[in-house]
Specification:
75% helix; mainly alpha; MARVEL-CKLF_proteins; transmembrane helix; 7 helices; transmembrane; elongated; Marvel; CKLF like MARVEL transmembrane domain containing 6
Length: 184
């Protein structure tokens, strides 16, 4: 006659502590692993630099030619919000509920669009600013953010090209196999 405890002791594991087991709270719904490290870093820099460009632009109290400032304001705030949206989609369970191909395609075109328009806004702002330190800081952050968006687009374009080159050999092998006679 064995005690009940003796039967279960060798195979039953203790209650895992907080360091082990399933993640809880915010950590459970945030997954940064869907983006490779270089893209994660670029997305973080895009977010930070576009926010800093927007903040520096908001500090500007007066302007002579305000069109460039207002366009830069719109672009920097939009870039920040769109980048934040893409990060939220990549890092939360939302990603599992939508088509991953559409997310990547949207990210591809949004990143390209933001990079080009942010670069244009920065160039326009350079030609219309009043040379205050806040404007110069905003412009520097604007150009840096533009380059981060364009670098991210470059990485995505490179990855897309690599994927399409991997698929091509498979398609040619299948085509050759279909043209061979069955009784050869």
């Amino acid at each position: 006659a064995m005690e009940n405890g003796a039967v279960y002791r060798p195979t039953t594991e203790e209650d895992p502590g907080p360091a082990r087991g399933a993640r809880s709270g915010l950590a459970a719904c945030c997954n940064l692993g869907r983006l490779r490290l270089p893209r994660r870093v670029l997305k973080g820099l895009q977010l930070l630099l576009s926010l800093l460009a927007f903040i520096c632009e908001e500090v500007v109290s007066q302007c002579t030619l305000c069109g460039g400032l207002y366009f830069f304001e719109f672009v920097s705030s939009s870039a920040f919000l769109l980048c934040l949206l893409m990060l939220i989609v990549y890092c939360t369970p939302v990603y599992d509920r939508v088509d991953a191909g559409k997310v990547k395609s949207s990210d591809f075109y949004i990143t390209l669009g933001i990079g080009c328009v942010f670069l244009l806004a920065s160039i326009i702002f350079v030609s219309t600013h009043d040379q205050t330190s806040a404007e110069i800081a905003a412009i520097v952050f604007g150009f840096l953010a533009s380059f981060m968006f364009l670098a991210d687009f470059g990485i995505m374009a490179y990855e897309k090209r690599q994927e399409s080159q991997k698929r091509k050999p498979e398609a040619t092998v299948r085509a050759e196999a279909l043209t061979e006679p069955l009784n050869a």
